Amino acid sequence: MRNRLEEIRKEKKMTQEDLAILLEVSRQTVNSLEKGRYNPSILLAFKIAKLFHLRIEDIFIYEEE
Amino acid sequence: MAQNKTWNIILLIMGVVCMIGGLYAIKVIELNRLLFSMVAAVGIVLLEITVTNLTEIFVYRKYPMEKKKKDIEFYDERNSAIRQKASEKTNQTMLFIYSFIIFTLLFMNADLYILLLMACAMGMHGVLSIIYFNYFEKRM
Asked: Which domains does chain A have, with CATH numbers?
């Protein structure tokens, strides 16, 4: 699964630390999400989408292998 | 938090009493050495745990952001997933180590009851896995 989290975060001029605080996760989790090493739970995905006023599918792009 | 603090202070006092009482009984009165060594050991463990807990309570009261940071680190979903994976790997490794120990003891001609005890521990491992699987299967 790809995601546009880094791009959206930078558009909003936020640091990984800021985003981590708002999402109540660790900064390492934000980093892993952005690098695509970790796929978020549905709850975290909703939280991220709600924070940026976007839909989940605008941020996370499902790709069939 | 206040109740937690009270309990920790009570346990701290108990720990100090056990430690000093146990050491006093061994060194001065020369009572049952094994029993009072255990009492002193329990006291030291209680002391260590309660001092840690009380320090945390006082530090977090003074710096509430630190507590929030620690909670975030602990409940972070990626960290939880990492912990689960680490536990799973540890589990598999420990089963391998148990088997290795049993075979080593077998070649060392160890007593049968020791081998059976180890085999029972391994068996319990399997039984507990099934019990917990069924328990969580009904809840997820």
From this structure: 2-61 (1.10.260.40)
